[in-house]
Specification:
It contains six helices and five strands. It is globular, with a radius of gyration of 17 Å. Helices cover 36% and strands 15% of the residues. A hairpin with an 8-residue loop joins strand 1 and strand 2.
């Protein structure tokens, strides 16, 4: 079972993002605040869960959280400010949308741009350590996957229903064959030079 909290005095929000390594689509981020002493033995890093498990947990998280939110930053902004800054911006936007203002932020990863005056703790592989970060990873992943699934209907040639915009061999070959769509990140074109 993951840890309930980093500490017990301050109200924590766990934050994580999804889609940093993609060639297309927005980066999504989520923030989650759970009640004190919340327990859920099913929560885990979204990458360690099946799609069915993630969808099941998404409904539980949305029901059980004191507050949760999801935000996105599109590929145009990613190209302007780079993917790292876009990830931070998406997290900031998600925190902005919370119904309650947290007193401490738990951030998955090793870097973060401070949000207002709220202290933050960066936790490497935090989505496999803390429940709130794991929950944020699940929300960010499921919301982003749903977005890319919908975009697949408009751009079926890229196989986004399968790769969700990540640089699979099929996706990279499709870009070389069909060119980039309006959802592709122009600043990521260097990734297409990888040999097949």
């Amino acid at each position: 079972m993951l840890q309930k909290a980093y500490q017990e005095q301050l109200m924590e929000a766990g934050c994580d993002e999804a889609g940093r390594g993609c060639l297309a689509g927005p980066v999504f981020a989520a923030a989650v605040i759970f009640p004190p002493d919340y327990e859920n033995t099913l929560l885990n890093d979204s990458k360690k869960l099946s799609e069915k498990q993630r969808e099941h947990l998404r409904r539980i998280i949305e029901k059980d959280a004191v507050s949760y939110s999801v935000a996105q930053v599109d590929n145009g902004i990613i190209d302007k400010i780079n993917i790292l800054n876009a990830s931070f911006l998406a997290m900031h936007l998600a925190i902005d949308k919370l119904a309650l203002q947290p007193e401490l932020l738990l951030i998955d990863g090793n870097r973060f741009k401070p949000y207002k005056k709220i202290p933050h703790i960066c936790v490497v592989k935090g989505d496999a350590k803390f429940m709130s970060i794991a929950a944020a990873s699940i929300l960010a992943k499921t919301y982003r996957d749903a977005f890319m699934q919908a975009q697949h209907d408009l751009f079926p040639q890229y196989g986004w229903n399968q790769n969700k915009g990540y640089p699979t061999e099929f996706h990279r070959k499709a870009i070389l064959q069909h060119g980039q769509s309006s959802l592709h990140r122009r600043s990521f074109s260097m990734q297409l030079k990888i040999d097949f």
